[in-house]
Amino acid sequence: MPSLASCTVDICSGEVSAPEELSRLAAFLYQFASAKHLRLRSERLCPSIADIVGATSRILQHAPNLEVLSFVFETGTRTDADKDGPLPHGRYNCKEEELLDAHRLRYNRYDIIDAASGGARIPCLANRVREINLVHYQGGRAQRKLAKFLLCNASVMDELWCQFAEGPLWTQTELMREMKSWVTNGNANTVFR
């Protein structure tokens, strides 16, 4: 069976339940045993918060040698006509109000983000993962639950890099404070953009 050193995986496209699909999924997951860098990508949020944490947990359980975990949250706003985002005239040829109204960043301080269990302890998070990258982080409940799950379980993480989706500075600041509180290694370098 071939193994992967680095891989990009789209998650949350649907639940696997048929016996034939489960057997193919199991065979696929065993290829992650030697992966050192994994890039997970989600073009849309999973149907439930548990789905995104569950899908991520299943993959990480099979990647004991993982050192770098990247998660890319696609914003779903790009079109062939406008690669700059959701703005009708492009990002640089718009009014300030259009730019402010187009952001995808969210934060609700009243949301209760419980620690996600994700099942059994995940060895790579506890012992190997040194770097976690979150790209286009928007701060919705599912993304916050996933981030909390990853950061609370990444005991030896040396670096957290987070790129926020476009949005107000106050929202980015609140999300940054929240994420810093979840980092278990107090010596970890945190970079937010």
Write up what this structure looks like.
With 193 residues, this protein is an alpha/beta fold. Helices cover 32% and strands 18% of the residues. It has six helices and six strands. It has a six-stranded parallel sheet, covered by helices on one side. The N and C termini lie far apart (40 Å). The model is unreliable at 77-103 (pLDDT under 50).
Series of H and E elements: EHEHEHHEHEHE
Q: Which percent bin holds the helix content?
A: 25-40%
Report the total helices: 6
Query: Class by helix and strand content?
Result: alpha/beta
Arrangement of strands in the largest sheet: 1-2-3-4-5-6
Shape: globular
- Give the biggest beta sheet: 6 strands, parallel
Record field, number of beta strands: 6
**Radius of gyration, CA atoms, in whole angstroms:** 17 Å
Strand percentage lies at 15-25%
Low-pLDDT residue intervals, each spanning 5 or more residues:
77-103
The average pLDDT score comes to: 75
Record the SSE blueprint:
Elements: E1 6-10, H1 19-29, E2 37-42, H2 49-61, E3 68-73, H3 96-101, H4 123-127, E4 131-137, H5 141-153, E5 159-164, H6 169-182, E6 189-192
Parallel strand pairs: 1-2, 2-3, 3-4, 4-5, 5-6
Helix pairs in contact: 2-5
Any descriptors?
193 residues, alpha/beta, 6 helices, 32% helix, globular
Short structural description:
By secondary structure, this protein is an alpha/beta fold. It contains 6 helices and 6 strands.
